[in-house]
Amino acid sequence: MAKVPWILAALALLAGVLLNLFAPEPYMGLPLLAAAPLVAGATLTFRSALAVVCVTCVVSVALDIERGRPATPLFVDLAVVGLIGALALGVNRLIVRQGRDLALARDVAEAVQRAVLPDPPAEAGPLAVAAGYTTAQAEARIGGDFYAVQETPFGVRMIIGDVRGKGLQAVAAVSVALGAFRQEAEYAPTLDALGRRMDEALARAAAGSGPVISSEGFITAVLAEVSANGEALSLVNRGHPPPYLVHEGQLVRLDPAVPQLPLGVGLGDIAPVATEPVDVVPLPPEASLLLITDGVTEARDKQGTFYDPVLSGRLGRRFTDPEALVEALTKDVGRWTEGDHEDDMAILAVTRRRPPTPPDRPRTAFPGVRAH
Predict the structure, then answer these.
(1) To bridge 173 with a disulfide, which of 3, 93, 163, 297 should be the other Cys (CB 3.0-4.6 Å)?
(2) Does residue 276 have a pLDDT over 70?
């Protein structure tokens, strides 16, 4: 592919030479001669483009001399090619500068993304952890989907969420939500209490720094907690796509028993309830909890059909590694959409590790008794 710009510039130059030599009318090859520097300026390095411009100018003068044209047309042809060449070099510098600015902006966006949404730990308590993030646009490295995993005195707590908003406002809301989760997960005694404390934190942020959260920019989320021994899984779903339990080749969707409002909805208008329902299910050894955002469930194929992890059937196999589960789901969604993602997609998977089998203790004879 690196040779293609050179080939295009050479073809334009060659076509201009041939037209100038053999066309019935003069100057017919001049547009193609001028096209060679334009192609070079837009696709090659500055030095390479400068070389093409110089060669084109020399070729233009040589062709006019060979055809015996007077001095005035010769200088006119040279001026046209030289002016277009100078413009091509200017375009080249502009493209290089814009490329540097874009690279800098992408680096800053990536740094912000890593600061706001760092990678979760590979292990947390009895769980192995893996996560994946796919943006709707390849050049955009920051969005409104988020996740976090944290060991607490109450077990391993985690969250996956999606800010209903775009741009810097969504990033601000993600920062507030994750900050509130990391702080309150250490002290809230239950998941429903954790959700209420996050509501309060979002309300304080909205009151103190403007409309960080609004009715158009609420946050859907799933809060999850795995007990210290890994046996019990607790879930609170705040208006988010339900998670899945993956175990022994089976994929089961964990719908909430009672639907709940997203985080940040109706703050100040609706009095918080005393207790919100918490769903509790067993988590067998080597079972995985798969948490997703709506970038997965709202992914569509060319016919407009939504993706369904259960109906897909490609996740119906044994997964003892959360990284393999995240990778399999990401590839399956990409296959379904043929790489055309319309929304950001976040995936968080945790797998309960099987506890190690204690080694057999060697038999020893009691003192004074001879072993047989």
Answers:
(1) 163
(2) no
Strand order in the sheet with 244-247: 123-124, 127-134, 345-352, 288-292, 244-247, 250-253
Residues 132, 117: Cα–Cα separation, whole Å:
11
**Residue that the structure tokens 């959260």 belong to:** 213
Across the beta sheet with 232-238, the strand order is: 145-152, 155-163, 219-226, 232-238, 279-282
DSSP letter, residue 229: T
Mark out the alpha helices in the chain (DSSP H runs): 4-22, 30-43, 46-66, 71-116, 167-184, 191-209, 294-297, 309-312, 322-337
Task: Give me the half-sphere count of Cα atoms (radius 13 Å) on the Cβ side of residue 316.
Answer: 6
Q: Between 321 and 358, name the one with better pLDDT.
A: 321
On whether the CB atoms of residues 185 and 197 are closer than 8 A, the answer is no
Is this structure's pTM higher than 0.85? no
58-89 in b/e burial notation, b at 16+ Cβ within 10 A?
A: ebbeebbeeeeeeeeebeebbebbbebbeebb
What does residue 74 show for φ and ψ, rounded to 5 degrees? -60, -45
Q: Tell me what pLDDT residue 320 has.
A: 84
Q: What angle do CA 186, 187, 192 make, to 5 degrees?
A: 105
Mean pLDDT over each residue of the chain, to the nearest integer:
82
Mean pLDDT, residues 56-68 taken together: 80
Half-sphere exposure of 149 (CA within 13 A, CB side): 23
Rg (CA), the chain: 32
pLDDT band at 66, cuts 50/70/90?
confident
Tell me phi and psi for residue 300, to 5 degrees: -120, 150
> In 111-131, which positions are buried (b, 16+ CB within 10 angstroms) versus exposed (e)?
eebeeebeebeeebbbbbbbb
